[in-house]
Predict the structure.
Amino acid sequence: MKISDYDCPSCGASYLVAESTSAPAGPSHADCAICGERLASWEEPKLRVYRLEMSAEFKYPRIQPPPSPQ
Ligand SMILES: [Zn+2]
């Protein structure tokens, strides 16, 4: 298993890429989960997974606190 980092060239979203040549999979591709841009496509029979590394901004969305009871 090979792990590397990849940033979407379009929107800059950070991905963790896990690549395995031992797990057979067909040619495939990966699209950015944020902007939909094609991240990569490959013809080799390998398994490659792009995991979005959520920024703190996405992990902890600002939620308006409910109004305090009066
Ligand atoms: Zn993107």
Remarks:
- The two ends are 57 Å apart (CA to CA).
